[in-house]
Every structure is written in C-alpha cells, then in structure tokens.
C-alpha cells in the first residue's frame, strides 16, 4: 500500500506577540488591519519594535530589525525607494515597467490563501546580479510579487503592489488581515509557514546556515536561501550555527491523495507511450507484443495429439501387452481317516 500520505506534518511556533513599528504613511487599509491585530492580542503597536513596516522605504537604512517594505502608490516615488534600498544594502530594486492588465497570484508559498485576490497594478521586483533572495509569490504572468531577502544581517520583505484598493482587491479581501499578520509575525521570525511539498524547494530565513532533513542528513545553506532537495516528508530543522532556528513541515502533494479515475485521454497524457484498450480480451495482445524464443505450445499440442491417436489405434487393433494365465486344477476328493 502507498503509505506516504497517511499522515500530515505541521509545525506551529509559540511566542509572545511582536512589537510592530511603523515608518511613513502606510495608508488606511494597513492601519485598520494593524488595529484589528492589536485588538486581538496578535501584535503590540509602539515601543522598541521587533519588526518595522516602512512605507516607500522610510527609515529603512536606519532599521536594525526585520523590515517589511510597502511600495508607494505613486510611481514617481520609486527612485527615492530604490535609493533607500541601496543605502540599506538591499540588492533588489522596484521598477515600474511591467505590463498592464489584471493578474492573479499563481504561485503562493505563504500560509495565506490568495487565490481570490486580483492584482490590477504591480511593480517589477528586480534582483541585482548575485543578489540573495527567495521569491515567495508570483503573479500569473511570472512576475515576482513577494520577495524575501536580507541586508546587513536583517531580513527584508519586498511587496510588488501598493496596499490600496486601486492596485489590488487585497485590502478589501478576507486575506488582508491574515497576510499582514504573517508579514509581522510569521515571516523572517521562524513563524508559521505553509507546509512544503516533497520535491519542491524550501524557502529559508536569511540567518539560516544549515538544514537537517527528516532522515538526519544535514545540508548547508547557500546564498539562494532555499533548500532544493526535499526528498522526504516530515519535519525539517533549520539551524543558525548551532542554534535551532525553526521547524518546517514538508508533506506529499495533496493531489497525490486525490485518487480519481482518469479517462482515456488523461491516461495517455499522464503515461507517455501508453496504449489504452477497452475490451479486456485485447489486453494480452497489447501487453505482450514481444517475446523471447519461439512458442512451444503448438509443438506440445501436436505431440499430445499424436499420442492420443496412437493410443486409440492400439486399442482398436487389439495390440497390447501379453498376459499369462495359470492352469486351473480340479479339486481333490476329501480324505477320510480310517
């Protein structure tokens, strides 16, 4: 039996609510979502921040904590944002030269469902040659939409669209608050991640130096901030030096558990060179198209037929093995005593 998908793995961290700082005008939608999170006890606004939300990169060069960069709605402010990214040591830039038209999130590696989000305006997140970073989400035209990178040892998250209802439907979508919570609590802090899939790369935090897979093999982390070899389902342990940084779960693809009967066209698409037959009697003819040696059943059948005919002829002609009979003696008269 196939037992790899009999269990599902997950990892959930437990920690105090992070303190969130803000720099620049993040807009009414972000402010409202932050207030909801604070009222729910998920974050703390003010104080010495654990994570900074910066609008158009304001305060980014001076930040020493995890930073989420919210792009400006006005594209004329992009040059200033890119200067701040360069001053902070971030090797990615935000460009306003992507194609127009509404797109959706086609590739999503964050633990928030973004399937219903429609993006009307996005910027292009462009990496400098040799830049480190991991693309966490792409839109349907292949453009990166969420990128995790680092600068001066601190994680930096770049977003490809302004957080307003003109650029996308995200601010008025049910995913807005969970996504913003992941921005400030989950990403870059060893927080909740969507379980990965076996065979796909695993995004890693910027401070990771080594990953231990479920069978105990340890893999060094390179500048891509990804583990490309996820061969086993289970819990992957991410280390920063000798310290355990976080746990990440990897499961078999859900589609492997959805066993459905394929039609003839589906079988031919899934199995290259497959020949489909509908009549069970045709299966042997199609399956056994090649053989080794010659067929012996015809010769054996001929020998059996000859032996059967020979036996019939011998029986009819009376020819057979001779039999011997013993003579029958007459009984002796009984003797009487005198």
Concise description?
This protein is 20% helix and 24% strand. The protein has 338 residues and is an alpha/beta fold. Strand 14 and strand 15 (218-220) form a beta hairpin.
Give the helix proportion (percent range). 10-25%
CATH topology of one domain: Rossmann fold
Q: Major beta sheet, specifics?
A: 9 strands, mixed
Strand content: 15-25%
Order of helices and strands: EHEEEHEEEEEEEHEEEEEEEHHH
What is the CA-based Rg, rounded? 38 Å
> Kindly state the mean pLDDT as a whole number?
83
CATH architectural label of one domain: 3-Layer(aba) Sandwich
Report the principal-axis shape: elongated
Overall structural class, as computed from helix and strand content, comes to: alpha/beta
Give me the side-by-side strand order of the main sheet: 2-1-3-4-11-10-9-6-7
Question: Key features?
Answer:
Rossmann fold, five-stranded mixed beta sheet, nine-stranded mixed beta sheet, elongated, 338 residues, 18 strands, alpha/beta
